[in-house]
Write a structure and sequence with these properties.
Blueprint lengths: L4 H19 L3 H7 L4 H10 L17 H11 L4 H11 L4 H6 L2 H13 L4 E4 L15 E5 L2 E12 L6 E7 L10 E7 L5 E3 L13 E12 L11 H37 L1 E2 L2 E2 L4 H29 L5 H26 L10 H7 L10 H17 L1
Parallel strand pairs: 1-4
Antiparallel strand pairs: 2-3, 3-7, 4-5, 6-7, 8-9
The chain binds flavin-adenine dinucleotide.
The site of flavin-adenine dinucleotide has 22 residues, from strand 1, strand 3 and helix 12.
């Protein structure tokens, strides 16, 4: 749902210009330094990028899902690390509070998130619990008006920068699966929290992950999201349904960028006396990429519109994330091929995207987990 087309066009123009003029020229610098310059983060704040999905009453833009994916199509046209710095605050780090938080929790945290003053991270994964997230072991034991948290969270995006975590921990040890889990807002400077070394990753330099370790960390009981124990896994799954559409939209944006670069190169590079774009085998790679990109874009928009209409989009979100992330990998692979030897060389940038996009098939549910979600939903629907 687009609430006001004119306002939306202005926002999309602003984001597209920002990507073109501020982010693209800094891609190599970020890849080399593994840092996003502070002045760029400040510009992101000024543009309102941290508040895209926060309700207007708390200072955000309150974008609908359709509006959000249109912005992500634009923001995707540069190194994914730039999206990552706002991504957890706009997405998985904040949406637990937006969707299920109490009025007090929203009033306390959302204005700080919307302005970018506080960065939010999402802490679900653990060393022994990844795809099987419901088996998580981090414990939160009630002690008066606090919970005492012990456990380790792994690969947490933006953890080194985070001001708060949306933390999933087990409050009921007798319930080993989802219904024993509660969601908490935890301030990063709470005593008992420490951080592992920054992970060294395949790509997305500038986006940081690390372990977050909780040792007898006392979290106020009023920080249980929604004030209710035992529903934290449901909150996490609602957050991830939305997050999957968001990631799928980013995949569309990145694939568009990489394909644009490959097309430009194919029209400039000459072999056998003509631009390589004239060769039908190159055209096949371009055309297959364009076709898949179009299909992914349509899926993402459809899933977003259905979510805006209040439908349950568990299947559509997984279909979109599965298809768009796999599509993005194929498009990046073909883009390297179209560049030939230059595609393997760092100076042309395409090998960086090839590495960067590999992550999309892994986090917020691997491709295999999306397939399982889709098939399970199909079987449930058939049984009804
Ligand atoms: C850069 C990065 C950033 C991340 N950021 C965050 C974050 O901010 N917050 C957070 O909580 N987590 C984060 N993660 C964790 C991420 O969500 C997990 O890595 C992912 O869910 C997979 O879990 P795993 O790594 O334990 O793999 P595993 O679950 O061990 O999976 C290994 C392989 O087995 C397959 N597999 C597992 N179960 C099945 C099954 N039932 N059927 C078929 N195949 C199966 C998987 O698809 C995969 O191919 C991040 C990860 C990375 C790499």
């Amino acid at each position: 749902m687009i609430r006001d087309q004119e306002t939306m066009n202005v926002l999309l123009d602003n984001v597209a210009r920002f990507v073109r003029e501020r982010l693209v020229p800094n891609e190599e610098r970020v890849a080399e330094t593994d840092e996003i310059p502070a002045d760029i983060v400040d510009d992101m704040k000024a543009l309102g990028l941290f508040g895209l999905t926060i309700p207007e009453q708390y200072g955000g833009l309150d974008l609908t899902m359709e509006e959000e994916v249109l912005v992500m199509f634009e923001l995707g046209k540069t190194s994914p690390a730039f999206r990552s710095i706002i991504g957890t605050t706009v997405g998985i780090g904040s949406q637990g509070i937006v969707i299920d938080g109490t009025d007090e929790q929203k009033a306390k945290w959302l204005p700080k998130l919307a302005s970018g003053a506080t960065i939010a991270s999402f802490a679900l994964t653990e060393p022994e619990s990844g795809s099987d997230a419901a088996s998580l072991k981090t414990r939160a034991v009630r002690d008066g008006d606090h919970y005492v948290v012990n456990g380790t969270k792994r690969f947490i995006t933006n953890a080194p920068q985070a001001g708060i975590f949306t933390l999933m921990a087990r409050t009921n040890p007798d319930e080993p699966r989802a219904s024993g889990i509660s969601a908490f807002i935890v301030e990063a400077d709470t005593p008992g929290i420490s951080f592992g070394k920054r992970d060294r990753k395949m790509g997305q330099k500038g986006a940081h992950t690390c372990d977050v370790i909780f040792e007898n960390c006392r979290v106020p009981a009023h920080n249980v999201i929604g004030g209710k124990e035992g529903v934290g896994f449901k909150t996490a799954m609602k957050v991830l349904d939305k997050g999957r559409i968001h990631i799928a939209a980013i995949c569309v944006g990145v694939a568009q960028r990489v394909l644009d670069d490959a097309l430009r190169y194919a029209m400039e590079r000459k072999q056998f006396g003509q631009p390589i774009a004239e060769f039908q085998l190159i055209q096949a790679m371009l055309a297959d990429s364009q076709t898949e990109l179009y299909a992914a874009r349509c899926m993402v928009l459809d899933a977003a519109r259905k979510r805006d209409a209040g439908e349950n989009v568990s299947t559509e979100a997984s279909c979109a994330k599965l298809f768009a992330s796999e599509m993005c990998g194929r498009v990046a692979d073909r883009a390297v091929q179209i560049h030939g030897g230059a595609g393997y060389m760092a100076d042309y940038g395409v090998e960086r995207f090839y590495r960067d996009v590999r992550l999309f098939r892994i986090y917020e549910g691997t491709s295999q987990i999306q397939q399982i979600v889709i098939a399970r939903n199909m079987m449930r629907a058939a049984a009804r």
